[in-house]
Amino acid sequence: LIQFLGEKLGLTAESTRPGIQDAIELVLDNSCPKIRLIRGHKKKLRQPVESALSFIAELIETLPGPLDVTSDEAFYDVLVKTFFVNEDQLKQTLANDPDLNEFLSRNSTDVFFVLLTMDRDVKTIFGSRLQGEIVMRDVALKAVNFSDHKFRAPSVTMADFNQTLERGVLQILAHWSLENVLEEQSRKEELSLLREEVAAKLKILAADRQQIVLEWHAGSGMPSYTAAQKLLERIENELNAIKTKSLDTEYYLGEVTRVLSHPNDYFTAEHVAMHFDRAGILLDGKTSEEKDDIRALEVKLGGTLRRSCVLLKCSRNALFKKRS
Fold it and tell me: What is the rounded CA–CA span in Å between residue 151 and residue 166?
């Protein structure tokens, strides 16, 4: 499901900014269906959805870029050199990216905007560094590499891009609340199976219990029987708690309300800076000349999925131009 949530960043949903009612419907379509059974559910969702939309607007505002890579020079110096191993890797990524190719097949525009998302890896290497007029050798440096490139939310205009991304992030948050519900249902099934296993074990132990009592001595099976009884009791208590919640439709509304009201608990982002050294190696961290820094937005979903994002202004002709 984490992978599914990550892929939502590339939604090609209609690029119309959701008004509050449309946004509420979008949330309902992507969360637990039982919420629709609650009287006044749309009214109860209004404030949480507004909070989520404000969070998303601020998130989009923090995206670095757009980096203009519409010229041949920028294509090499900015796009290929910074984010890819070489031009062949970029070409392979373009050829295998369904979102981008589907967008380009529907739109004849040359210039467009797109979000480049990647896995970012920082590893220590040893190289030289200029300190004043002295060249320091065998210095530990933090080199940056990118992999698993994906082009997401391609759009003809910046307005379209913002609207598509807004809908995508809102869907991610709604799905996150649904994931919490599904995890509990999965836990319920797991506990039910465990209950059957423990109950079966107790039957076996109970059949010999009389003999165990008569012949009990240190190290006999009596403690095992008692432990199984306590485990079964704990399982029953947890199952009853889950059952009680699942019978209350307000529980499902509470889950989506909690996520939408506190989106930064599930969806966080921070800027990362990088720069090229004199040897042309991309290093982690800022330089004294901030104008030379390369910036990306590191987005983290739920503590497990982390992606680096850069907004690009691209040219179809520059991307797919045949070069010798």
Answer: 16
